[in-house]
Design goal:
This protein has 146 residues and is mainly alpha-helical. It has 5 helices and no strands. Helix 3 packs across helix 5 and helix 4 packs antiparallel against helix 5.
């Protein structure tokens, strides 16, 4: 291992473990499993107690290609991205105060903030939040000017 890079020495060690681990892989099939658990209690181990490389590698690849759960369809309200639609949802009127405007902003953000939604819906949520913030900021400016 002397005279080798760290990467080369790791590759060499993994190769020797793989050669030793092929016999331990057959022991993995006989390892007891919990009724509701898909993985064995103990990964295939050789006489020294180290995990067999091929068994660990196989388990890694088996786990890494699991299909992600399907995403649910985008809620209908997130498709309402026009200024008129967002203004209609906010229902701003002349009786608003700074307190009610702040409350409406919080309520709207709780349902529409991009950080609270799946990645696929964030573009629409961002547009909706920008429009809502713009409308509420303008209403606040008008209240403060009056």
């Amino acid at each position: 291992m002397f005279g080798m890079s760290v990467f080369q020495s790791v590759l060499e060690r993994l190769k020797t473990e793989e050669d030793e681990g092929e016999t331990a892989a057959t022991a993995l099939a006989a390892t007891p499993r919990a009724p509701s658990c898909a993985t064995p209690f103990v990964a295939g181990a050789n006489e020294n107690g180290s995990a067999a490389h091929s068994a660990v590698e196989r388990a890694y690849f088996d786990a890494s290609f699991i299909e992600p759960p399907p995403t649910e369809p985008m809620p209908a309200f997130l498709n309402r991205t026009s200024l008129e639609e967002v203004a209609e949802e906010l229902d701003l009127d002349e009786r608003e105060t700074l307190g009610t405007l702040a409350a409406k902003r919080r309520i709207f953000a709780a349902a529409n903030h991009p950080d609270r939604l799946p990645q696929d819906y964030r573009a629409n949520a961002t547009v909706r939040m920008k429009l809502a913030n713009m409308l509420i900021d303008e209403a606040s400016r008008q209240l403060q000017a009056a």
